Amino acid sequence: MSSTWGNNIKLSLFGESHGKGIGVVLDGLPSGFEPDFDLVNLQMQRRAPGKNVTSTPRKEKDAFEIISGLFHGKTTGTPLCCLIRNEDTRSEDYEKTRHLMRPGHADYTGHVRYNGFNDFRGGGHFSGRLTAPLVFAGSIAMQILMKRNIFVGSHILDIFGITDQLFDPSSLNHEVFQSLSQKEFCTLDEAAGFRMKEAIIHAKSLKDSVGGIIETAILNTPAGLGDPFFDSVESKLSSMMFSIPAVKGIEFGSGFDLAHMKGSESNDAFRISNGKVGTLTNHNGGILGGISNGMPIVFKTVIKPTPSIGKMQKSIELTSLNDTEIEVVGRHDPCIVPRALPVTEAAASLVILDIILEKEGSLYG
Amino acid sequence: MSSTWGNNIKLSLFGESHGKGIGVVLDGLPSGFEPDFDLVNLQMQRRAPGKNVTSTPRKEKDAFEIISGLFHGKTTGTPLCCLIRNEDTRSEDYEKTRHLMRPGHADYTGHVRYNGFNDFRGGGHFSGRLTAPLVFAGSIAMQILMKRNIFVGSHILDIFGITDQLFDPSSLNHEVFQSLSQKEFCTLDEAAGFRMKEAIIHAKSLKDSVGGIIETAILNTPAGLGDPFFDSVESKLSSMMFSIPAVKGIEFGSGFDLAHMKGSESNDAFRISNGKVGTLTNHNGGILGGISNGMPIVFKTVIKPTPSIGKMQKSIELTSLNDTEIEVVGRHDPCIVPRALPVTEAAASLVILDIILEKEGSLYG
Amino acid sequence: MSSTWGNNIKLSLFGESHGKGIGVVLDGLPSGFEPDFDLVNLQMQRRAPGKNVTSTPRKEKDAFEIISGLFHGKTTGTPLCCLIRNEDTRSEDYEKTRHLMRPGHADYTGHVRYNGFNDFRGGGHFSGRLTAPLVFAGSIAMQILMKRNIFVGSHILDIFGITDQLFDPSSLNHEVFQSLSQKEFCTLDEAAGFRMKEAIIHAKSLKDSVGGIIETAILNTPAGLGDPFFDSVESKLSSMMFSIPAVKGIEFGSGFDLAHMKGSESNDAFRISNGKVGTLTNHNGGILGGISNGMPIVFKTVIKPTPSIGKMQKSIELTSLNDTEIEVVGRHDPCIVPRALPVTEAAASLVILDIILEKEGSLYG
Amino acid sequence: MSSTWGNNIKLSLFGESHGKGIGVVLDGLPSGFEPDFDLVNLQMQRRAPGKNVTSTPRKEKDAFEIISGLFHGKTTGTPLCCLIRNEDTRSEDYEKTRHLMRPGHADYTGHVRYNGFNDFRGGGHFSGRLTAPLVFAGSIAMQILMKRNIFVGSHILDIFGITDQLFDPSSLNHEVFQSLSQKEFCTLDEAAGFRMKEAIIHAKSLKDSVGGIIETAILNTPAGLGDPFFDSVESKLSSMMFSIPAVKGIEFGSGFDLAHMKGSESNDAFRISNGKVGTLTNHNGGILGGISNGMPIVFKTVIKPTPSIGKMQKSIELTSLNDTEIEVVGRHDPCIVPRALPVTEAAASLVILDIILEKEGSLYG
Fold first, then answer.
1. Taking CA atoms, what residue in D is nearest to C291?
2. For chain A, which residues lie within 8 Å of any Cβ of chain D, measuring from their own Cβ?
């Protein structure tokens, strides 16, 4: 099944990039919650294209219409459906090249998966545009978590080898996230951010693209969330993160660096602090045995370079099965990492809310 | 839910490390398949403890009894239950330290999750021992895939910074996997393997432990497997891999290195070869848009250092909420990476079989 | 979770009776199927209100807009979203009586379930109006089944004790279903239908309502569909049928009459006919051990009298917790059985398609 | 998938009638619950065969072994596995007739479903014997409900047309259920029970069998349980009930009698009683709009006559596809209704617990 997710909340994504619209049905939300649509819009706008030199000039207002599930401004508890109409599509860009398989894209795999009946225009259902309803849904989830004092935030850690500083656990709090979410380019170190933007603009000038790494943190999750094995917090978060187009890796806590550590280093020592259980380090990223331990849940995801590039590339023509070359025209981001931040935050919020509702029960909001 | 998994096959793990036994129910298998139990035993033995200096001296024959689902040596199509009795347990080792939270373990999170009612002996249900029934189930799945010419294999890529060579896609085949599975220490480069073993023995001499990285490959998966978004091949594989205790990161294809590449490098160029569609490189690890593209599916997982170490560590006493220190006695692996190889292969096999059955239908074996 | 269903296709219903609209997301459909929207409209019109004296004068064109999942007139294989805007709503009818709990309705249970935040207007998400998108989705499923020569049909068997003849298995075929679906009042025996309509009109004149029984049959299902226990054909069909508002009972084959039969009567004798396995009778309704046996799948569902009646009824006022009386004004069907036929057929079609796809695999349409 | 069930608790049944054993894995139970195994045994014994003239002389102690999930007598919260070894099997009875399809049984459908690889002995996985682990699991669930003051009970309402009185809602309470569960033949009216037994014995003397109807009630469920549409209380209960072999119909409240009632009769009038909301009648069986309304949840299930009868029956020989005759030898119940009571209670308890945990959350027991 492509597009249905969740145990305690159910998410159903629909739509294609160049069809009538895209949207989401979100079932299982607590009733009586009053979303702040300014916050929803803020996250939607952070994801939206066309804002600056680092993103595609395609302009989508991403204006959403709530079809159901909201009554007198509050969630009813029954399915919330959000519809976003497509506008400013240039489908003809894609008609010309429909048999040319764009490298790095789902053109070929989508064709095989759906026996040639997929909507190929702009990637169709595979388009990164489908992350807009995901951000909508995740923004609602994020606000429900905020009422429980749980906060989700992220920043750009790495673009083409230029690195931001890591989140500093000793000073990390909601204000840091809020400040990041209002930045035009989300790094902790603005100088690093400036160099990253230069690298993106340079790649764009070469008709090329670059990728990067996002660091995400979730604060104030209580200990005891998640389950051993298949519903571990890592299993659920990773499963969701790999749903985001272009994510190709995830690591929790010290992640791949753990391969070079000794147990005496990587084991996070327990200590009582202010009468509460904590750990002195957080190499395990807030998760032990699949269950949250009360420390910040911290993970990194890698976003591959935007596959749509103007440079000439080797490809194939699918009807004749001949080798050929392709230049991908159209409007594309030279780097999608900045726009992927609110998507990552939305995805993480949905996962944590789903896990929280398993603990708390789904009946009352 | 802790321990139930799958869309088209359903896996249900049960048991605790020091209880009566552990096991698995595997539902949805095709009927009429005749497992080769020598191959099952081979994988079980690769995972079993007590074989050499790099693993715990706890001896478990891991003798399994098939309770149901097999008739005249063939799968019936109804649930296959496998039971493994526990033997050679030394529960008293754990009774003494039940209120001391072992760093890096699930003692504390399990206590909170289950309100203090979890079986704490040897990690209980969180124990790595639960991977034995997972290997059993995965070995059956692996054999069903082999009949479809799909092969799953892995090797140790890195231990404490000592690295094996990567799988060479141009020469990778079933024989390489077979040869690896018969090695006592699974590296492609035996000299690297020798140095890795030295590092493990050295860590052991220090009452410490080390971690590492596993590279896994799946050969001959047809293009078109998986779904966009939540049931992407990456989502399903990662979700399963993080069910394996000690896994803290996963990356597909070039993974985190994609952050330092340009799109013109990371895009795998399509080319027709022998009338079939292929790509010249495999930076995407055989998956585009969440769907297999026919290239080998390749991923790396990081295994953290064994948390059980004899060295003195800072910890807490849970009843008094006091800081204290702990030396973890008992028999433990200084490095669990070698034993994690068949677990990774089993887990990958279960995922791919589940996805294959979505395509092929589950009725006939 | 209220409104998400299915193993191999996923159905997500959304909307409220007096909100912006209602709709459905249908995920997992085979790709490349070209729906006949005349047939979809026929079923939608059979369900729509306002057609004759036996139904509510509320006029809903039930005009649907397909938002996604259709490209060049064929299913893409990715989620199909259908939106139906609400029109001709008279919400003020409900505002006046919002604290008066209508007997037989979900007003009270919905209030408790959603802590008072449910959209109470016209029953909100509980409204029978939500069966419109169900009929849309089921009509697509029904057509996919028709390509496999599987047909679903139904008729009114009983209204207020006036009975139609049962389906005659010896002559039952697609033409019978087609002829029924084109009738203004779907009975096999037109004289019985005439008397049923009289009973409905009489109930209406008394500001009262009546219920009835629907007999449904599914023809040409191959033997071997379904699973033992929890995914038995009966389990899946019944689960879906009780999703339809007002259904309070279901029986397969001879159903409750089996309580008065001997085994030698109720056992359907096997016989070879034209080289194929069949049974001489069909007391088991085409299902043995939860699995289809190749005979017609036959079941009856009982529909309770429309709870909305103009007669004075005893009720309560929820804010004051006082006893009171209520006359339900507004436009209501004195009998919903005729409009429930296409809903039952849609629901049955979705179930059978879901089971078929488990057997056949979901990849190719 | 045949044998896995549940949203908040997960049930996995395994085993075959004449294999090594049968059992169940129950995942998602609250931790810290201490089962009373005398009560479990009481329910197991009520289901067990060989007790009196109305049941098969096959003797199964149904001695169960708890493999996991229990520690110091209390649930750990991790999967509870229960294993029941098979004894006293006479497999040779079945080998002789393996190609003769027993009418009314799953021999033929199981053969087709599993392509001839099913364990045919005694019905294999389709055997009513699989209800033993279901009763085990349900008895645990029933006790967890009892701690919440929710009680589940049932009685034989009808055998071959001889009827017991209905549950009297005004006097129904836990004591009535307890008294019934201790009866050797569970009717409210002992004279009716005596005549039912005579009918069963008479059927047995004719090498025939009879069926019947069970009435089940669930007391003290709070209002607000369940969900609209696909997870309605009726959907979930019916889906589970049709998992029980031989159940062919279910009706809630007045059920099929609603077809002959007017809305003014069938609508249950709301009334305040002792400050609480109740209804004067219970034609809706405690469920409105799929949600519990606080009244007793009442339903009836019909059990078909035991298909195993000694009388000569028409059948087929599957290898030659010839018509033939069959006399089913072996030990069989002339009526399984009495033994089906604890199965129905177990099944209902599992459903209600699953729904309760959705409301309450699954973390703490």
1. D109
2. 7-8, 78, 224, 228, 357-363
Interface test with A, best of C11, C14, C20, C33 (most A CBs within 10 A): C14
Tokens of A142: 């994020």
Q: Using CB atoms, which residue from C228, C358, C361 is nearest to B359?
A: C361
Chain C residues touching residue A14 (CB < 8 angstroms): 25, 27, 67-69, 78-81
Chain B / chain D CB contacts < 8 angstroms:
184
Alpha-carbon gap: C76 to the closest alpha carbon of chain D (Å): 26
pLDDT of B55 > 80? The answer is: no
Q: Which of B36-40, B97-101, D192-196 has the lowest mean pLDDT?
A: B97-101
Inspect the interface and report whether the beta carbons of A359 and D360 lie closer than 8 Å. Answer: no
C-beta of residue D16 within 8 angstroms of C-beta of residue D61: no
Q: How far apart are CA D166 and CA B21, in angstroms?
A: 46
For tokens 């645990």, the residue is D140
Q: Which residues of D touch B362 (CB under 8 A)?
A: 1
CA of D221 to nearest chain A CA: how many angstroms apart? 15
* Domain B4-360, CATH: 3.60.150.10
Q: How far apart are CA A119 and CA A91, in angstroms?
A: 11
Structure tokens at D16: 């075959």
CB D14 to CB B65 under 8 A? no
Residues D75 and B119: their CA atoms lie apart, in Å, by: 9
Chain D residues within an 8 Å CB radius of C206: 262
Cβ neighbour number for residue A191 with a 10 Å cutoff: 10
Average pLDDT value for chain D: 93
- Looking at every residue in chain C, the average pLDDT score rounds to 93
pLDDT for the residue A176: 97
pLDDT at position D365: 43
Q: Which residue of C has its CA nearest to A76?
A: C118
In this structure, are residues D278 and D270 in contact, taking their beta carbons and an 8 Å threshold? yes
B13, B69, B364: residue with CB nearest D14: B69
Q: Is the pTM of this model over 0.90?
A: yes
Which chain D residues have a beta carbon less than 8 Å from that of A224?
363
The torsion angles phi and psi of B189, rounded to 5 degrees, stand at -100, 110
Which three-class secondary structure state does DSSP give residue A120?
A: coil
Among chain C residues, the shortest Cα distance to A73 is held by C117
Q: Of C132, C181, C183, C134, which Cα lies nearest the Cα of C154?
A: C181
**CA-CA distances (angstroms) from residue A291 to A133, A226, B109, B122, D29?**
29, 5, 6, 17, 17
- Chain D's closest residue to A358, CA to CA, is D361
pLDDT (0 to 100) of residue D220: 97
- Chain C: list its partners (3+ Cβ pairs within 8 Å): A, B, D
Cite the beta strand spans of chain C per DSSP E.
Answer: 4-5, 10-15, 21-27, 64-68, 70-71, 74-75, 80-85, 151-159, 162-163, 212-219, 247-252, 270-273, 276-279, 287-288, 291-292, 297-303, 313-317, 322-326
For chain D, list the contacting chains (3+ Cβ pairs, <8 Å): A, B, C
Write down which chains contact chain B via at least 3 CB pairs under 8 A: A, C, D
Contact A240, A5 (CB under 8 A): yes
Q: pLDDT tens string for chain A (365 positions)?
A: 567 888 889 999 999 999 999 999 999 999 999 999 999 999 999 999 876 556 655 555 678 999 999 999 999 999 999 999 998 666 666 777 889 999 999 999 999 999 999 999 989 999 999 999 999 999 999 999 999 999 999 999 999 999 999 999 889 999 999 999 999 999 999 999 999 999 999 999 999 999 999 999 999 999 999 999 999 999 999 999 999 999 999 999 999 999 999 999 999 999 999 899 999 999 999 999 999 999 999 999 999 999 999 999 999 999 999 999 999 887 789 999 999 999 999 999 999 999 999 888 764 54
